[in-house]
Each structure stands twice: as C-alpha cells, then as structure tokens.
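Sorry, explain these tokens?

***
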Amino acid sequence: MKFQKALSIVGLMSGIVMAAQTASAAGFYIQEQSARQQGDAFAGAAANPQDASTLFNNPAGMTELSGPQAAADLSLIIPHASLSNRGSNVLGGPVTGNDGGDPFGPTPVPSAYVAMPFQGGTWWAGLAVTAPFGLTNNYNNTWFGRYNSTESVLTTEDIAPSFAVKITDALSFGGGIDFQHAHAELDQKFLSIGPDGTVEVNGDSWKTGFNVGAFWKVDPQTNVGLHYRSAITQDIDGTLAVTGVTTGTHASAQLKLPDIVEFGATHQLTPQLKILGSVNWFDWSRFSQISVNSALGTTTIPTAWRDTWSAALGAEWKQDEKWTYRGGLQFDETPVNDFRDTRIPDSNRFWVSVGGSYVLSPAFDIDAAASHLFMPDANIDATNSFGGGPPVVTKAQSKNYVNILSVQGVWKF
C-alpha cells in the first residue's frame, strides 16, 4: 500500500516545474535585470544600449558604449496575492482551512555586468551574472489549498561570458554562452488517515545555453535590435520525501525553459525626446508536459502551456546633461491555459513604469525605477489524488498585483 501511495505521489515532482509563477513577468521569466531599462517598461531594450546591462537584452549593444564600464542592479519584487475559497471539496464535502495568507514576500533580485573594449572598440568582451527565472511563495500549512501546494521555490543563476564585434559603423553582432544553475524546492500536504501527510521535493541542475543578438543603426536617429535567448532544459535531480513512505528517495524531473526572441526599436524624435518600442515572443509551449522519474515509479503530467508574446512602449526625456526621465507601458500575456493551480495563480500583466537617471560624475551614474503590474483575477480549479484515495478539488479565485522597485549604479573607467 505504501508503494502504491508513493507511486501516485511521485507525480508531485511535477511541482518543481509548476512552482514557477514569477513575481514579475508572465510565466516565470524575470525581466528585472536593469533599472534603466525598467523605467521604460523594457520598451526597446534590445535596441537601447546605454550601459553594461545591455549584455542581458542584447550583447551586440556593447559596441555602442563609450568605453569600459561595470553595472550593478538590485530589483526588489513585491508581489501580492489573496486567494478565496470557491468551493474546494473532497468526497462531496468542503475542504476546511483558512485563506493561506499572502503567499508572497518581497524578493531581491541582483544582477551585475562588466563590458570591456578591444582593438579600438571593434571587439568587446563582457560578463553578465543574472537571475532570469524564479519564484518564492509560501502558504501556511492549514489553508484550504494545502493539498495542492504549501511552499514553492525556484531560483536560477546565469553566468554569461559574451562578446560583440562592430562589422560596420552601423551594424554589430554579439553573443554569449549561458552557464545556468537551477534550484527547486516544493512542499504540499496530502489527505491521510489521521493528520495530513507531507510531500517534500528538493533538487538542483546545471545546464548550458546561449544567446545571440544584432544591433543596427538605421540612421542617426533610429536604432533596431534583435536578440535570441536559447531554450534550456534543466534536469532537476534531487530527493523526494513522503510522510510514512520514504525519507529521501532519488527523483528527477525536467524543467523546460523557453526560447525567447526580443525585437526592439528606438527613435530620437527631438534632441530631448526618445521613443521606444519592443515585441517579445516566448516559446512556453515547450512546457506541454512533464516527465517525472523516481525509484518509486514514472509519471507524465500535462501542463498545456502556450506560446506567448509581450509588447511595450516607452519614452525618455533628457532634461539636461545630469537628469533623464523615463516612462513606459507593457502588456505581458500569461502562458497558463487550462491548467492553473495555486502554485501558478497567473494571469495577463499590464505594466506601468517610471524611472530616471542622474549623472553623479563623469565616472558614475545612478538609475532608479518603479513599476506597478495590474493583473486580472484568476480562477483556479485543480484536482489532486494520492495513493488511490479520493480526489481533492481545490477551487479558488486569486487576486494579484505586483510592485517593483529597482536601483542601479554604473561605473565608467
């Protein structure tokens, strides 16, 4: 009986992948890698190289920098979610419990960049350290959705050495290798005779991908940029612990991160005013199902995520040699289709961003930005069944929004 229960519960390893509703972008992508770009809601980011953080959105933009420099960014992502019970039930009766509280807390996301020219600026080398995907959430153990999830953690660290070359005065190409680490943890309860049982999963993975970009100065006022970030399949390898069954059985699951294509354009409308725009595409349909393997068995879980797109418009106003102000709007489509659960109470996101830069000295700039993300209410209908036991249906409505504060320093050498 214990083996049968464990074989059913091993499907919870799928939560490693499903535990990734980020606090910023739809799906679990984290855009917040530059306070300067955030001020425009990341409009035109692939075509707007102003500091070393261009390494994230388009390394080809390094060739437009004035000289060697470094940048460090810290974004504080402050999500909020409140879930109300819409009739969660088991065996025809209600599932009792509180509302779980706000599962999210403020999460800092750091990033750092260095860019260096060679051969008079024809060649450039750079290094970016970022966290492009992630989530942390935690419901209390007695909430009504505890049989669907109680805790979810996904973190990634990406180290990307990059290069760029200026082909002509108007055209540059760049690219880099992404060495990426992923770590995942998740907990949830399961219905048992007596007190609720607990499932705990913990795993890690290192994988490699790449990114390439092109930057084109169409004319003295207009820039165009194109950037591609390759898909990475993280083979999460770790342990599965189940109350009353096992304290640490080996288990693994695949986390399929998407291809991302980013197109951006900027136009200097007047000496003071620049307008910016971008369209991004995300290959979230790679996330169509999850294959989970364990010494206790194998299972496949459908997810049915869909490809998505985002679009942004922004503007920059250069008041003088010291001050620049920014603002932007973005629409970011959710990839969640038919399978929405409490780990991913995701919906479309509508960004409003403002920001500014101040040139403190010829060697140092400081940037700051703030964003608010509006999100429509999302309905959750999730069913979990363990060890041949009765199905538990979690029905909820999630009300979400996100605030983001970012600051960045740029050192010029």
The chain is about 5% helix and 60% strand. The first strand starts at residue 69 and ends at 85. Residues 2-9 form the longest helix (8 residues).
